[in-house]
Amino acid sequence: MRTYRVRSFAKVNLGLTIEGRYEDGFHALSTVMQVVTLADVLTFTFDQAQTSGIRIHAQHAQIPKDQSNLIHRAAEAFSPELSFDVDLDKRIPLGAGLGGGSSNAASTLAVLARDKAQMPPDQLPDWRQRCLALGADVPFFIHGGTQHARGRGEQLAPLSYSGPYFVILLCPPVHAETGRVYRAYDEMMERTD
Description:
Layout: E1 2-21, E2 27-46, E3 54-58, H1 70-78, E4 84-89, H2 100-117, H3 127-134, H4 138-143, E5 146-151, E6 155-158, H5 178-192
Parallel strand pairs: 3-4
Antiparallel strand pairs: 1-2, 2-4, 2-5, 5-6
Helix pairs in contact: 1-2
């Protein structure tokens, strides 16, 4: 039995501009993203005797524990034959724009890359496409830090900043699903044209 306990960090967008829209409806963005210390904690357990697939355990009732969870989808993108348990201690608020689900997916890929492929996740073949298929923020979370992201989130350029900074996060009890936010933006722009 092998166990890995990892922190899955949140991010903030220090600025975001919508530069256009792709034919498939996704938006072309320019944003500066920064990892912050707020993090979920994921504990992965690999037991060779377990053959029942992926089991997600989470205390939060709104977290899906089936194939719709990004942890599960990331594992299937890595390899459809995996079996493991993961305990998710959810500390990043849901629907707050902090990238919790995408961060969980990137953390899952990182653990699987280390455990199964014995390599860093950024050296996996076609990792960017695998990550982007899971969510626009997932490629960012593979590297973290401070990055300028463009396109759908896959065009990343690291930015350096050496000074201290502080961010105060205020999260009202409102769930803002990303797709709905962008649809509302599109509707607002159509009304102003």
